[in-house]
Amino acid sequence: MRKRTLLILTLLLALAVVFWPRTATQQTPAPMPPGTQSAPAIIHAPPSSPMADAMPSFLPREARDMVAVIQRGGPFGHRQDGNAFGNREGLLPQKQHGYYREFTVDTPGVNHRGARRIVTGGSPPQVWYYTDDHYDSFHAFDVSGLERSNE
After folding, report:
1. Domains and CATH numbers, the chain
2. Residue 39: predicted pLDDT
3. Could you tell me the sign of the dihedral formed by the alpha carbons of 108, 60, 135, 72, in that order?
4. Per the residue annotation, which of 89, 97, 102, 112 is the catalytic one?
5. β-strands 117-121, 127-131 pairing
6. Which of 53, 63, 133, 142 has the greatest count of CB atoms below 10 A from its CB?
7. pLDDT of residue 6
8. Is 112 known to be catalytic?
9. Is the pTM of this model over 0.85?
10. Which of 134, 139, 147, 151 is catalytic?
11. Backbone region of residue 64 per phi and psi (left: phi > 0; alpha: psi in -120 to 50; beta: other values)
12. Residue 46, phi-psi category: left (phi > 0), alpha (psi -120 to 50), beta (remainder)
């Protein structure tokens, strides 16, 4: 009887250890009032700045903000930001490994990285691409004429 109780307690403890981190780290974001957006993990460029006004219209606000953060050199909201992008899909021009870097573009209402990214090429970046479908397609854009933000 004592062995059986010890076995049950050990099993319950093992289950608690296995499932405890999941319940502690998975939190559902609080519902936002209609017409509002969740706060992004990055600093916004002022909406009236020349950089925000000169960006292509297909870039969402969060992507425009990420361009400013990339140009400042960070800080970035995700540990993967700035890592090499492998171009496994072959949709971008072929370059040596490490030429392309990827950066997360936050998606309001999503509690994970989502599908939106900016991919840059060169160091400092010479070419810029945006994808909102996790690398299934890319839209090139140019930031060469924009002022670098020093906020």
Report:
1. 50-141 (3.10.450.30)
2. 34
3. negative
4. 102
5. antiparallel
6. 63
7. 66
8. no
9. no
10. 134
11. alpha
12. beta
